[in-house]
Amino acid sequence: MGPASFGARPTGERLERVRRSPQYRDGAFRNERPVRMAGFGDALSMVRDFARRGERLRRTPARPVPLARPAAPTDVPASGLRLTWLGHASVLAEIDGHRVLFDPVFGKRCSPFSFAGPKRLHPVPVALAELGRLDVVVISHDHYDHLDMSTIRELIAGDAVFAVPLGVGAHLERWGVPEARVVELDWHESATVGGLTLTATPGQHFCGRGLRDRWQTLWASWVVAGPEHRVYHSGDTGYFPGFAEIGAEHGPFDATMVQIGAYSSAYWPDIHMTPEEGVRAHLDVSGGAPHGVLLPIHWGTFNLAMHPWDEPAERTVAEAKAVDVTVAVPRPGESFEPAAGLPVSSWWESVAVRPAPGARTPDPSLNARPADG
After folding, report:
1. Domain limits at 48?
2. Which PANTHER family match (predicted)?
């Protein structure tokens, strides 16, 4: 099975359920349409680009990233909905009296190894033990920047339910999560936890933690609906028509948490969104008209692509303004209630590396905005 951090592949009844999924065809989970992904040769080129051109592309902040202290667990949100961005794709959503933690990664690296792999660009804004009671932990897929073994093992001490896509429960159970606390869903399936309804919805991505398990677990976006509020977390995904279908069936949402970082038209144009596509996805799940608040995620914490560190935030804010979308870009750890005032500081501007006058611009083929974007 390899190192424990690799997790485990589905077996037994879990494997049979995987094989019965409409998304599992010809021995693997499939997207609803073909996707372009970097092959082995592309991966080697990407490694060379990271090594040779990383500094010129301003891929790390120039100064320490400012952190905020999350709202106290005992401080109940007056509006019934509060979001706390904890960095990358990790978000604590307090919704109608319930506390839901999405894609928690509190480790120092998003990697199977403690000595190698992308390292945090800022500390965690709060210790996991200080977050307080959790009702649900939601996992979008099994990549290391979304599913961290050390974090999961620490969360076992609580009594939260773990909601995961098909097959991902095998990883959790290998790490010690009791089977009774794992809710494993296929796309379009729902489960009720307390007063919340959790629905696994489609995405356009892939999966795998090792060399031999790619496409053997499912990836998903998630809808979490309470009696008064509903939110959407995109996980990792390329832009695809399914957003409008999700919006028609489950929207509109009071807030969306949408991936807008780690994009590249050269290496993974179909499995990660550009900032402009992220804003469009927010509009799609909102029914085509501005509604709710967009919280950009999947940027700022790990160095995973060739674009400048601050570019996802800059482009998202610019696009949101152009199409009249309300966007909130909090500091890591900053809590806000969408109905009670949003973070307004462009804090990243004072942290980012600015190009020197007359400096060459990055190669646009590495992270260019697609022609239709």
Report:
1. 4-340
2. N-ACYL-PHOSPHATIDYLETHANOLAMINE-HYDROLYZING PHOSPHOLIPASE D (PTHR15032)
